[in-house]
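INFO  loader      accepted 1 record
INFO  loader      residues=349
INFO  predictor   begin
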Amino acid sequence: MVATDAEQAAMHRALALAETVRGNTSPNPAVGAVVIDAAGHLAGEGATSAPGGPHAEIVALDEAGDAAEGGTAVVTLEPCAHTGRTGPCTDALIAARVGRVVYGVDDPNPEAAGGADKLRAAGIEVVSGIEAHAAASGALRPWLHAMRTGRPYVTWKFAASLDGRVAAADYTSQWITSAASRADAHRLRSAVDAIVVGSGTVLTDDPHLTVRDADKLADRQPLRVVLDRRHRVSDDARVLDGAAETVVLDTAVPQFALKALYDRGVRHVLVEGGPTLAGAFVEARCVDEVVAYLAPTLLGAGPAALGDAGIGTLADALMLEIESVSRLGEDIKVVGRPRWAQWTDEAGV
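INFO  predictor   done
INFO  writer      dumping tokens
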């Protein structure tokens, strides 16, 4: 079965809705949903709320009201069939008497999967795999990765000169990149669950690690995480103020840190530490995405963006699949994914 033109349009809207809640839903997935009535007209729409709030389908069904009967629910992820903090979305769809459900990606979570079968058993027509690639590579990507691997999705972000230096020879680093790049980096922070640095970065730069919007603290702040095996971070470090929650982990091992964060409900981590921490994550093969902000500046000396990553020869170099290259003022933003992160499933992602 294929989707109608109205359902395709509804899926594109659902994908956009999911993007609006990226970073705000963990440990739940960022899902978008649209309900169209029996005549093919928009009746309701919604996206997943913060944990404890309604899922996307419930928001869309509530907005649609009686118009959902005999209509179609279009969802980016297979509707859940289990009871967590809220009831199963499948039960709500059945109670609303929708005639058809169209979704993008199968739910890999064994606790929640099986929604499609439950809907079919209730006499509802189900169509899966619609815009599956777009759904799995969009707002759902970090959550899907976490469900499949048991660890958060990791984005490594750095800002550097064109010759790859994150600071000058005297270790001055503010500001290598432009205001446009820094604003974009704050948007990136706003879309993750946690920001991770090492104790060296805290001692050297005393970062705040918060999300700012027009120089004001954003309402939602990701978890701040410091890896401090040697207990070097002092109590007056800015990262320990009350602007956001902070966790100090007594480890330097990425895998242990990621497991601890996964257990806290973290599904997307942003690594912002210096070259040593970045090298450790790369060597451990715990980087799933690289975001580089490159300034049109040459420094010639100073620390490189990436420290020792266990790469001894060109044959061992980490190869990236470049997803996008864009301009931010005078800077260049490059987004790439290590080839080890190119997992493939039935959706073709």
